[in-house]
DNA sequence: TGCCCCCTGCAG
DNA sequence: CTGCAGGGGGCA
């Protein structure tokens, strides 16, 4: 589910809440979600939280890191020792934790808890030491982080050209081309770049690649500012939904009017995935 | 490069 | 009931 902006939203929120806490106990109700021995984590202090692409890394004391991938339906929800302190449960908030899709619960030394919910059970939590992190195939395959300076339009061009004859929108979903983009921001980035998502990479002009580059960055930044996108599952660590889909130009807007030119937004299928675009703005 | 699969639940 | 969903791995 979550793409870069959603995972980043969770990272920013959790950072303030769990760094410095020690893990007391772990409860696992779906053995596929987390396959390590929970005892390995007992007493470990949380040192920092980072994000790479759609992966969250929770750095623990003594050379251990929890890697978390939320895949399509994962959630990480933090509950302080006093439930909902400060904010009151609104319709945005999930019901009581744990709920039917809770798969793993981390309990901290101050009594607070972190719930890993995952309706579809595609997500995973892994435990690695620094050596394993360095060797990890999945992490090592990831391409540039789109919000870092290294991600220039020339880098985008070079990486897109790994799949010359494919549609640009499909290529944007390849995590080795750009890290962290998923179906929403591939669609939104193409819109902001005025690129028809079906365009073959080899047919893109340099001018178009520059526009696409800017479009990707702009849509990701706007989404982070809005607290991410919530279509069905995404909520942040406080259980609150992101607002970005209110601002989206094309994603999930088929049949509605383009916010720029009033043309009807279309939905097609590309590489098996729903793809949304404005036939007028994107050529 | 293009399926099929891992799962569950919801809309049409 | 069928098809579809913010992901990505494995297989031919």
Return Rg in Å: 20 Å
pLDDT < 50 runs, ≥5 residues: 84-94
Count of DSSP-assigned helices: 8
| Beta-strand share of residues | 15-25%
Distance N to C terminus? 28 Å
Provide the structure class: alpha+beta
* Global geometry: globular
Largest sheet: 4 strands, antiparallel
Number of strands: 10
What percentage of residues falls in helices of 4 or more residues? 25-40%
Helix and strand string, N-terminal first? HEEEEEEEEHHHHHHHEE
Strand order of the largest sheet: 1-6-7-5
Mean pLDDT: 94
In short, what is this structure?
The protein contains eight helices and ten strands. The protein is an alpha+beta fold.
How would you explain this protein's 3D organization?
The protein contains 8 helices and 10 strands. Strands 1-6-7-5 form a 4-stranded antiparallel beta sheet, with helices on one face. A 4-stranded antiparallel beta sheet has the order 2-3-4-8. The longest helix is centred in the C-terminal third of the chain and has 20 residues, at 206-225. 26% of the residues lie in helices and 21% in strands. It is an alpha+beta fold and 283 residues long. The chain starts with a helix and ends in a 6-residue tail after the last strand. It is globular, with a radius of gyration of 20 Å. The structure holds a DNA duplex (12 and 12 nucleotides).
